[in-house]
Amino acid sequence: MKKILLPLFVTCFAAVLFSDDTQTTPQTQVQTQTQTSDKWAPQPQAAKGEKWSFLQIGFWFDIPSSTAKSNVYGLKTGQPISSGSGFVNGAEISWLVAGTDNLNGLQACWIYTQNRYLTGTQGAFICNINEEGLRGLQAGLINVSGNLTGFQPGGVNVSKDIDGIQAGVLTNVARGSVTGAQFSLVNVTTNTLNGFQASAFNRTEKSNGFQLGLINISNSGGAQFGVANYIKDAAIPFLPFFNIKW
Fold first, then answer.
1. Residues 194 and 178: beta-carbon distance below 8 Å
2. Rounded alpha-carbon distances, angstroms, from residue 27 to 41, 84, 102
């Protein structure tokens, strides 16, 4: 998948606000794992017989052309940019952009990282984008992920379904369900909270857990501790200090 370097904050906030669930098909030949019963899409694997490199150096998006579809078992590095629709088992470390689609290991960069699937750690000072699914750690100023199993610390965090923890300075958004916890100034879960939210403002569509904050909102169920607590389907929807509906 060809990646285009846009101004960084436009790219990051566009991903946060307008992220599309439809993704392009990888250009490399892959075979997928058997579909599991969880919410993860099957992660692609390199086709048997494909060649692997121990070390690969990129200079721009898909330059040299050998970086576009090749696989690395070791280190891939961008001087200053690396990308490609192949696989890295090991580490991808670049100066400006690290953008290989599929990783098992570490993807790190000073400015911007992007992948489709990652098992391991993704880190950048400015922005991290994961499109489909991430198992492990995603850390940066702005983090956007598909389904997340693990830990997402940052300034602004956006994910689909979460099994783990979001810890944001400003905002956490789960565009799905949370099984775990959210800690930030503002927490939003668009589906079901199965765990804990703590912030000044907490909102969830449905709660099977607890909300702690100044303002807590749930459209269905949960327990709330705060100055203003609202549970739409409770016997008394609005109560100060404490509200509950199971």
1. yes
2. 18, 9, 12
Instruction: Give the closest residue to 103 by CA, choosing from 85, 125, 128, 126.
Output: 85
Of the candidates 93, 136, 151, 115, the one whose C-alpha atom is nearest the C-alpha of residue 15 is 115
- Angstrom distance (rounded) from CA 132 to CA 147: 6
C-alpha angle 122-180-159 in degrees, rounded to nearest 5: 45
| Distance (Å) of CA 178 to CA 84, 144, 147 | 31, 15, 10
Report CA-CA distances (Å) from 65 to 62, 69, 92, 245: 5, 8, 17, 59
**Which tokens belong to 151?**
């830990």
Dihedral sign, CA of 80, 150, 36, 210? negative
d(Cα 213, Cα 22) in Å, to the nearest integer?
35
Please give the model's pTM, rounded to 2 decimal places.
0.81
Structure tokens at 22: 């439809």
Contact 170, 182 (CB under 8 A): no
Radius of gyration of the chain (CA): 20
Q: Is residue 7 scored above 80 in pLDDT?
A: no
What confidence tens digit (pLDDT) does each residue in 56-67 have? 999 999 999 989
Alpha-carbon gap, residue 85 to 100, rounded angstroms: 6
Question: Structural domain boundaries of the chain?
Answer: 52-127, 146-246
Phi, psi of 2 (to 5 degrees): -75, 130
Q: Is the peptide bond before 80 cis (omega within 30 degrees of 0)?
A: yes
**How far, in Å, CA of 124 to CA of 170, rounded?**
18
**How many angstroms separate the CA atoms of 84 and 102, rounded?**
9
